[in-house]
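(Structure overview)
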Amino acid sequence: MKQFLSSVIVMTFLCSSAAFAQEKHVSKEEKESNQPHHRITLLMENSHIPQISEDIGSARRFVVPAWGLDYDFWLNAKWAIGLHSDLILQQYEIEREEDSTTFSRTNPITSTLVGIYKPTRHLALLAGVGREFEKEQDFNLVEFGAEYGVEILKNCELSLNIKYEDKFNAYNSWMFGVGFSKLFYSGRKKD
């Protein structure tokens, strides 16, 4: 009986040692990126709006300046949810193609709830729904985008962003921007 019990203890020890030996070595950075964390991004953007009807002299303006502020909660290294907001810094008129009517927009603000998927270390894809708010008329919208970010300092990123917004029954726009992000980790796991 003692020999059987000794054999079971030795076999258990050997099997557990083999299981632990096969564990992948994970760096501190990989552990942090897999933890839930927050990210706040400030964006300097330009919005390309094809339906602008405002003329200055003989040149049509299609690109208007904008600021963006994004908050993302990263569930793990691949998935996040976020609230993204943009403020266009200009007044302009939109011409609807269907009926050739025009309506004005004065510093519209968009707010969008997005889902984010990160297929590679630097590339993130996003999609979401939201609303554009303006004093005359508000519009629902759908947004699709991508960002390419690189770490410039510890827990700070610089990113290039592009997104497409379709304001239902109104107009659409493309936004191009440069963003600066700060990552905040909370509740670090023990090693």
User: Anything to note?
Assistant: The chain is about 15% helix and 60% strand. Confidence is low (pLDDT under 50) at residues 4-8, 10-26. The helical segments are 2-21, 28-34.
